[in-house]
Design goal:
The chain has 243 residues and is an alpha/beta fold. It is built from 9 helices and 12 strands. A 6-stranded mixed beta sheet has the order 6-7-8-3-9-10, sandwiched between helices. Strands 2-1-4-5 form a 4-stranded antiparallel beta sheet, with helices on one face. The structure holds adenosine-5'-triphosphate.
């Protein structure tokens, strides 16, 4: 049974008849040019953007879930995160436990360790750098242990070490019988870490499948309007723009 199955998801002129599914244990990469609809799709799945069509989570309609059920099962790491208050790192991460109503320190400390923010647990989050804060917000989502984790461009402010570390973390998270949908602009990283890719173009699914099926020279030319050199057999995969 699919963890999540999306059929005919449509949002006014922004998304048109999107079909996709994520199996337990799978990490799906959402790729596509600026404005393709990646964020809009993630927001629909997170329940913060209305849509037409059908979304089933574990074979149950998403819209039938209570707010609490949905918060327990789906976690969203938005593209931009900011706290309106000067909360500590520990407080921010603990917010991820709210849907469960527990105050256990163990998950908070575990995810702080995984994301490399343990040393700042008692510091105000707004005193950290942009990339350090991004890892704190990722820790907040991980603390909630959602069945489906949605991450919108989680690499945007991370250095090279943490780009790999975070993608490894998300991949391991998916492999523990969860599901991850992650939007990425780095296609080589998407090829390296994602089980399958969904290439969006002007609000529609242009291609979907394994990285080798999706990241073809023809698809990249049609969607990104670039001539690319693609070597997915290399370790790590190489995708470079040559014209
Ligand atoms: N709140 C909104 N109301 C109406 N249109 C919107 C809204 N937010 C985004 N759009 C439009 O919807 C389209 C898809 O935007 P979206 O943010 O989903 O793209 P994206 O693929 O995530 O892009 P990027 O890679 O630049 O983050 C764009 O044309 C954008 O201008």
């Amino acid at each position: 049974m699919a963890l999540i199955e999306v059929s005919g998801l449509t949002v006014d002129t922004r998304l048109k008849a999107i079909d996709l599914a994520v199996q337990p244990g799978e990490m799906l990469g959402l790729i596509g040019p600026n404005g393709a609809g990646k964020t809009t799709l993630l927001h629909c799945l997170a329940g913060i953007e209305p849509y037409q069509g059908d979304v089933q989570l574990h074979d149950a309609p998403l819209e039938k879930l209570s707010v609490q059920q949905r918060a327990r099962q789906i976690g969203l790491l938005p593209q931009r995160c900011q706290s309106a208050w000067a909360l500590s790192v520990r407080d921010i991460i603990s917010l991820g436990r709210l849907p469960w109503g527990d105050e256990s320190k163990t998950p908070v400390e575990r995810v702080a360790h995984q994301t490399g923010v343990t040393q700042w647990l008692d510091q105000p989050v707004d005193k950290l750098s942009g990339g350090e804060q991004a890892r704190v917000w990722l820790a907040r989502v991980l603390a909630g242990e959602p069945q489906l984790l949605l991450a919108d461009e989680p690499l945007a402010s991370l250095d090279l070490y943490y780009q790999c570390r975070v993608l490894e973390l998300l991949r391991h998270y998916a492999q523990r019988h969860h599901g991850v949908i992650v939007s990425l602009h780095d296609l080589a990283q998407a090829a390296r870490y994602c089980d399958r890719l969904c290439l969006l173009h002007r609000g529609q699914v242009y291609a979907q499948g394994t990285p080798a099926e999706v990241l073809t020279v023809d698809n990249l030319r049609a969607v990104y309007q670039v001539e690319a050199c693609v070597d997915l057999q290399a370790h790590p995969p190489i995708i470079s723009v040559i014209g």
